[in-house]
């Protein structure tokens, strides 16, 4: 039975989730305090934590950071309001598994839990052992899975990207992949692996941003039993698990200087020694690293070793942000819609033209990851065969009006409204909510039952909000 912790200073949310998830067969504990929640994590292992972004005693991002140190295997999902989604995207960059927006939707909560547990299960299987079936059969299986989960763009920027992948994949060169968070750096790394001679061997992805200085050595090189307090059994490191295949080190610039020294030795000698071990082990592994910042700048600022940079920088690839791949937005959207239909057992066939227009105008600060999350949620909220803008989050629909996007995206000076944007987050959220309510009510000709169902709220809540916004 999966164990879940809910941290929210709204006791109603805690009780609601506890009752609902308990009925679904999960073991649930709750607390209204971030500090108490961290104490609970120290004493109990939780598979998943739902944590409100705005707690009374601390912020959700701080809880996230400490959970990743205390219990690296625990997934954290951030609970946030509509207007806080840009902040939530930033938290995901720091390691949150996903986020859910208020009002909470039961099907969305269950979907998130199932995805988190599936990823956790896959990670555990991958960490224990790697079977060695026929290489050709495994490569065929990997390509089939890749084809179903990964879509190649056909626009100008995409063609340039895949040309570089095709060029470097057959070699054994180390590669540095640059790109914003959510742009698909890991997918490109996996594509390089799948098109190389190592395709039938392990592909191990490591989030260096999640590794503290204390844990990094054990995670990367492994350790022997009794090598330090808590080392009750031997553990192979990620490099050892990747032997013969490819290791992908995401956000490499986040590694501490001390860990970089050990990494340099491994890269130079192609040997590793577990913590507490006495023997070196030769390894054969291709190294692909990724960063959302220029490593040369990190070298100049003495944050990254110059000799290590030159070892990695045998070939570099830049993954363009989604806002620079306008030609591919429709294809990516349809791909994510197909995946969401399969995952949620839905049958949404197409997007309304207005939805696609919104997708083209939005700057997607969270890139492909954000697009998939937006479409997954909208698919869940869509009852018919066509997705309309009423299913999209307000911060996407009204991005320019409420300045939810980067300032750079406003450079053309065009505004979709002549009204003055709210000066604070609370007012912005309220106005965006009123706009969505008005639009949905107009679509269903003010049928409150249909409107409440489409918005994922009950009739009483809808009535109160209509009264609040004078609708």
Describe the structure.
This protein has 471 residues and is an alpha/beta fold. It folds into three domains: 3-127, Rossmann fold, CATH 3.40.50.2300; 156-322, Rossmann fold (3-Layer(aba) Sandwich); 323-409 and 418-468, Helicase, Ruva Protein, domain 3 (Orthogonal Bundle). The protein has helices at 11-23, 34-43, 60-70, 85-93, 106-128, 135-149, 156-168, 185-194, 213-221, 238-241, 257-269, 295-300, 306-312, 329-344, 353-361, 367-381, 394-397, 399-402, 425-443, 448-455, 459-468; strands at residues 3-7, 27-31, 48-52, 75-80, 98-101, 175-178, 203-207, 222-223, 235-236, 246-250, 271-272, 281-282, 286-291, 315-318, 350-351, 386-387. The strands form five sheets. It has a five-stranded parallel β-sheet, sandwiched between helices. The chain has a five-stranded parallel β-sheet with strand order 7-10-13-6-14. α2 (34-43) runs parallel beside α3, α19 crosses α20 (448-455) and α20 (448-455) packs across α21.
């Amino acid at each position: 039975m999966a164990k879940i912790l809910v941290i929210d200073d709204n006791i109603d949310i805690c009780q609601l989730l506890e009752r609902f998830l308990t009925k679904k067969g999960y073991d649930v504990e709750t607390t209204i305090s971030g500090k108490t929640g961290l104490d609970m994590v120290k004493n109990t292992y939780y598979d998943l934590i739902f944590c409100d972004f705005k707690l009374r005693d601390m912020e959700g991002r701080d809880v996230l950071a400490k959970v990743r140190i205390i219990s690296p295997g625990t997934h954290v999902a951030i609970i946030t309001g509509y207007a806080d989604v840009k902040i939530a995207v930033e938290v995901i960059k720091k390691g949150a598994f996903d986020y859910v927006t208020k009002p909470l939707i039961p099907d969305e909560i269950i979907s998130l839990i199932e995805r988190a547990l599936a990823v956790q299960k896959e990670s555990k299987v991958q960490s224990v052992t790697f079977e060695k079936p026929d290489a050709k059969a495994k490569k065929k299986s990997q390509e089939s899975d890749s084809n179903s989960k990964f879509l190649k763009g056909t626009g100008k920027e995409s063609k340039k990207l895949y040309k570089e992948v095709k060029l470097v994949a057959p070699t054994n060169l180390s590669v540095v992949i640059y790109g914003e968070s959510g742009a698909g750096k890991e997918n490109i790394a996996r594509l390089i692996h799948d098109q190389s001679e190592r395709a039938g061997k392990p592909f191990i992805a490591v989030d260096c941003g999640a590794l503290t200085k204390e844990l990094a050595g054990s995670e990367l090189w492994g350790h022997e039993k009794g090598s330090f307090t808590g080392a009750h059994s031997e553990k192979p490191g990620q490099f050892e698990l990747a032997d013969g295949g490819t290791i992908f080190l995401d956000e490499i610039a986040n590694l501490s200087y001390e860990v970089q020294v050990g990494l340099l030795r491994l890269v130079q000698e192609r040997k590793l020694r577990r913590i507490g071990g006495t023997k070196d082990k030769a390894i054969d592994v291709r190294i692909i690293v990724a960063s959302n910042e220029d490593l040369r700048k990190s070298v100049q600022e003495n944050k990254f070793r110059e000799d290590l940079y030159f070892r990695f920088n045998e070939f570099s690839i830049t993954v363009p942000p989604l806002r620079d791949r306008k030609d591919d937005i429709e294809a990516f959207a349809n791909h994510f819609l197909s995946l969401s239909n399969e995952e949620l057992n839905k049958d949404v066939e197409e997007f309304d033209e207005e939805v696609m227009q919104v997708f083209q105008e939005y700057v997607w600060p969270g890139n492909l990851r954000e697009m998939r999350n937006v479409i997954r949620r909208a698919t869940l909220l869509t009852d018919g065969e066509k997705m309309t803008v009423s299913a999209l989050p307000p911060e996407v629909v009204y991005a320019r009006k409420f300045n939810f996007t980067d300032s750079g995206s406003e450079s053309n000076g065009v505004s979709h409204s002549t009204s003055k944007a709210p000066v604070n987050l609370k007012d912005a959220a309220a106005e965006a909510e009123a706009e969505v309510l008005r639009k949905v009510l107009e679509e269903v000709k003010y049928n409150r039952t249909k409107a409440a169902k489409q918005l994922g709220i009950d009739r009483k809540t809808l009535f109160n909000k209509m009264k609040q916004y004078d609708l």
